[in-house]
């Protein structure tokens, strides 16, 4: 199958781009640094519009090597090559989101996908540049509220859509205006979604047989409605050797908790960002400063009364110096993150903590004609200070120093293709939740117990990647393996501290993950009437807990996607067929998941003039209205994926 797909696509890969924090310029100026991040994908423009869902995790869930936690339709985070939570760094404009989405699966990422300009996905360890939390990969969500290139005049965008699966509407608008070397930006978005329809029963057949109830939920996911508002503004000043920009965004979302019928979550984040670049003379040719401050609050409301309140107030700053001299190209920098996390209420299973991270890093590349060598290192200090409280006891301090390193070699096979080998060593310090959790975690139905004796995870990762980019075809194919010593896993103890809540404790062992993923795009027919393209994605993953000689939980099954697209005149028609294999390799207390198919189709009409563009689009997801259960989801037995969804909308750029 793999060989067939490779031959069919002409051995190449679609639109790839390095993270903005690594690029020599934000506008994608050619740089050989991107050759050494083997597995990078950028979603933007029509491709992002096609894949956009109500959450960031679900938007990325069909990318090769990427899945979603899918904790109902209103909350999800990306899972990359079997790793999620604290091992995946989700960034907004190359800076951490500073939310609470890693602390609980029902906490969403506070970003409206409608207002996202592009999403950059890096598979595999990126701890070298973005911290120990990036041992599994990085997702960088780009919202261009500050600008990196000066443009005169006004540009505006309006988009709206309706979804049948929840009778929901989503609308956004933005305006950018440039004059006298200043650019000003405004944006706003609103989303109102009802309860999500499903084909049949909410609980799986096996769950209904094992635990029958009198009033079996069906047809809709109860308490899955949401109402969301976002506003943003930015101001950027351009001068001779650079620019400086400041932005503000306010995000507010009220959505139901699908595991508690009477609970609504009220999430608010206010965020400021400062971005600047300045050209230098000497060995370092450019300095880049990025900083973000966030004030985040998350209330869980039951019957009109506020129960548990989560807050996260903090900041992150990155100062980078980029060098480019002869055949040597690189980036070095400093990074600091400070945040204060608190949870207060009946369901608070975490103590208040003050968290500090300080790091220095460098990443360099030396070219030898078509071949090149890259290497890098990072040192990071993490400190956690636990507050004293009646529920969690006396104050405690924890400190970890982590070392990271990487080396890679690119062999240029010809003008259009290359083969890259990379090795990385990563140390990840345990976070405050893994160390200090102690209480009922209602979202997962567990009593979560941390361990103050946890040591750093130590990961060795190898990857071999083939890339080719030709005029009519692109391919990226990667084979990878990752060995993690002191792997931190939340595992059942077999006991119960509280009735109806099984005890789960953070323990350490040895994990081994391996697999491959492939993305390809080829124009297979081009005539005067139109162009036929074929897109393919393929991934396979295996994860094993070597300490217990069993499989890791929630590991995605084999998956293949075939998606032809035909463009003729003003129309673009696409059809997507996804096959998800059965997952029979499961962890203890985990059920197998049967295989299934997903069919999606869409059409877009584009009217383009000298001054504006109008797109009218129709999309149908889960065309056959099949029952779909995502093995990666913690709720796969009780909350299926949405049923058939017909989406109609328009996008207007002028």
Describe this protein's structure.
With 654 residues, the protein is mainly beta. It has a 22-stranded antiparallel β-barrel. It has helices spanning 2-9, 45-51, 56-59, 127-130, 205-210, 432-436; strands at residues 40-44, 66-68, 78-80, 88-92, 95-96, 118-123, 137-142, 153-163, 168-179, 182-193, 197-201, 218-220, 226-239, 242-256, 263-279, 284-302, 305-325, 328-344, 353-368, 371-386, 396-412, 417-428, 438-441, 446-449, 457-469, 473-492, 502-526, 530-545, 550-551, 559-568, 571-580, 596-608, 613-621, 645-653. It contains six helices and 34 strands. Helix content is 5%, strand content 57%. Strand 15 and strand 16 form a beta hairpin. The chain has a single domain (2-653), classed as Maltoporin, Chain A, CATH 2.40.170.20. The longest helix is centred in the first third of the chain and has 8 residues, at 2-9.
Strand content: over 45%
Secondary structure tally: strands: 34
Radius of gyration: 24 Å
Q: State the secondary-structure class.
A: mainly beta
Largest sheet: 22 strands, antiparallel, barrel
- By DSSP (H or I, 4+ residues per run), the number of helices equals 6
Mean pLDDT comes to 91
Distance between the termini: 45 Å
> What's the shape?
globular
* Percentage of residues assigned to helices: under 10%
């Amino acid at each position: 199958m793999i060989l067939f797909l490779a031959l069919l696509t002409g051995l190449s890969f679609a639109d790839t781009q390095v993270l903005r924090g690594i690029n020599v310029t934000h506008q994608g100026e050619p740089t050989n640094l991107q050759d050494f991040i083997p597995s990078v994908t950028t979603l933007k423009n029509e491709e992002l519009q096609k894949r956009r869902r109500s959450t960031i995790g679900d938007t990325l869930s069909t990318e090769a090597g990427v899945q979603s936690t899918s904790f109902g339709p209103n909350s999800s985070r990306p899972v990359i090559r079997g790793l999620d939570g604290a091992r995946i760094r989700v960034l907004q404009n190359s800076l951490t989101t500073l939310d609470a989405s890693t602390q609980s699966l029902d906490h969403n990422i506070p970003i409206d996908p409608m207002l996202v300009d592009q999403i950059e996905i890096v598979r595999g360890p990126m701890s070298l540049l973005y911290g120990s939390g990036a041992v599994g990969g990085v997702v960088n969500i780009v919202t261009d509220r500050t600008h990196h290139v000066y443009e005169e005049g006004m540009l505006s965008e309006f988009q709206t859509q309706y979804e049948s699966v929840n009778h929901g509407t989503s609308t956004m608008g933005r305006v950018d205006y440039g004059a006298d070397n200043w650019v000003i930006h405004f944006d706003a978005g609103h989303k109102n979604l009802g309860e999500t329809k499903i084909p049949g029963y909410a609980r799986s057949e096996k769950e209904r047989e094992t635990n029958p109830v009198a009033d079996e939920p069906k047809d809709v996911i109860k308490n899955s409605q949401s109402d969301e508002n976002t506003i943003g503004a930015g101001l950027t000043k351009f001068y001779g050797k650079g620019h400086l920009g400041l932005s503000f965004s306010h995000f507010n979302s009220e959505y139901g908790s699908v595991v508690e019928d009477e609970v609504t979550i009220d999430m608010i984040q206010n965020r400021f960002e400062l971005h600047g670049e300045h050209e230098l003379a000497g060995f370092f040719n450019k300095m880049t400063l990025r900083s973000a401050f966030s004030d985040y609050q998350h209330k869980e409301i039951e019957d009109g009364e506020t129960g548990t309140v989560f807050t996260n107030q903090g900041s992150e700053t990155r100062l980078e110096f980029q060098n480019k001299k002869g055949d040597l190209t690189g980036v070095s920098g400093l990074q600091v993150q400070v945040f204060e996390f608190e949870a207060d209420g009946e369901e608070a299973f975490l103590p208040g903590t003050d968290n500090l991270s300080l790091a220095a890093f460098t990443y360099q590349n030396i070219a030898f004609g078509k071949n090149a060598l890259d290497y890098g290192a990072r040192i990071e200090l993490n400190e956690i200070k636990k507050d004293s409280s009646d529920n969690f006891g006396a104050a405690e301090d924890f400190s970890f120093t982590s070392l990271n390193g990487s080396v890679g070699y690119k062999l240029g096979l010809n003008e259009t293709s290359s083969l890259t080998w990379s090795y990385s060593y990563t140390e990840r310090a345990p976070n405050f939740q893994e160390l200090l959790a102690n209480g009922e975690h209602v979202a997962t139905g567990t009593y979560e117990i941390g361990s103050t004796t946890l040591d750093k995870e130590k990961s060795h990762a190898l990857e071999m990647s083939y890339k080719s980019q030709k005029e009519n075809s692109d391919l990226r194919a990667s084979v990878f393996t990752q060995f993690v010593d002191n792997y931190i896993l939340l595992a059942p103890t077999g006991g119960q501290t509280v009735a109806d809540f099984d005890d789960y404790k953070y323990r350490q062992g040895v994990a081994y993950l391996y697999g491959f993923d492939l993305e390809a795009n080829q124009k297979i027919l081009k005539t005067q009437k139109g162009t036929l393209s074929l897109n393919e994605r393929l991934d396979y993953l295996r994860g094993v807990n070597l300490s217990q000689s069993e499989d890791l939980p929630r590991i995605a099954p084999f998956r293949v996607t075939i998606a032809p697209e035909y463009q003729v005149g003003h129309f673009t028609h696409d059809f997507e067929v996804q096959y998800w294999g059965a997952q029979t390799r499961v962890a203890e207390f985990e059920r197998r998941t049967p295989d299934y198919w997903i069919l999606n189709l869409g059409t877009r009409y584009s009217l383009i003039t000298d001054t504006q563009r109008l797109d009218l689009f129709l999309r149908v997801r889960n065309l056959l209205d099949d029952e779909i259960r995502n093995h990666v989801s913690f709720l796969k037995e009780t909350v299926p994926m949405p049923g058939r969804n017909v989406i109609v909308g328009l996008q207007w750029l002028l």
